[in-house]
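>> received
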Amino acid sequence: MSLTEGFIWGTSIMMLGSVGLLAFAMWIRVQDERWREKEAQDAERQAFRKAFTIHQH
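>> returned
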């Protein structure tokens, strides 16, 4: 393998790796936002349930 071939392989692997990392980071961010939304919805539901049970008694 010549030096230029090695250089091309190295840069292409690095580019693929950085693109993969970027996609992975974006996926993690989306999952985190979904989880936070779900947590907020659960908190709202609990607050609503508390208010509802207080009204019943």
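>> The chain is about 95% helix and 0% strand.
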